[in-house]
Please model this.
Amino acid sequence: MQAVFAFMRKNLTWLVIVAMGLGLLKGHFAPMEFSRVICATAAFIMLYPVMVNFRLEEGFKNIGGVGRVLALTLGVNFVLSPLLAALIAWTMLGSQPLAAAGLLLIGAVPSSGMAIGWLNQFKANVHLGVVLVAANILATFLIVPLLMPVALEHLFRADIEVGSLVIIEKLGFVILIPLTLGWLTRVVLQRMGRGDLPAKNRELLNGVANFGILLVMFLIMSLTDSQSVLSHPHVALLSVPAVAAYYAVMYFVVTRVIRHALAPGEALPFFVTTFLRFHIISLGITIAAFGEIENGIFASVPIIVGLLMQPALASALGRRLARQTT
Model:
């Protein structure tokens, strides 16, 4: 099993493409109607293992003393990034409000638990990363429910009824419930005298999360509405340059902030928690919030594009930054 999960981790991007292709093929011959229970279960398999490995309480406990980098992180993630995503969505996806909503979610939901895994790979300051991620999660709950309905109604003039309470409910499902159950899992293990999760168990959980990603991709593309991606391929084609433009501008901004305002030890935690986005959370929100809307699959298209782009970008640009700051 460990070998299977290691293979999945190394080849996740290609496996996502295969899962999407198989889902589209299955949907062509035997399309699946949207099922809240099935999609929610798949999203939970994707999210829960990530949250078991993440210690939110440590971030809030150690949030003092990092005021400057924390303020810059929140400013980039919840002011600059959503504005940038909204501008690109308005100019490049204005005729497709659901796809625009997906790009806006990319810009509004920053990297979360998985940021710690990237920091471990880069041998960077994990302690600072946990603090920044904890603040990001709290700010996501406060800002995204206000941002999305306003942007959909006033910026994109979309006839889509997704209110703030709906977004809060979906955020609770995709963040709060897995986070709480992850915390309870660690408490139970500690009470049983097993202490923290051994490294091999953490790897196992990461493997389960990757399997969850593949399962979600397969299910999304199996839905009846997903066939509209084949009949309207221009939505996917428009999403690729829009997502690429978002990442290009974000990288320019993030590296300028690092160069002019941060110490070397703060560079990689800032990069990981601003440039990288938590597509799993965004995908969970689109499944829950747009799954029952006609052509709701279009909201997932930019997020899937970002999910395919990000691993290669993170690896190449993060390692380059690591060499420059060490």
User: Anything to note?
Assistant: The mean pLDDT is 77. The chain has one domain: 2-325.
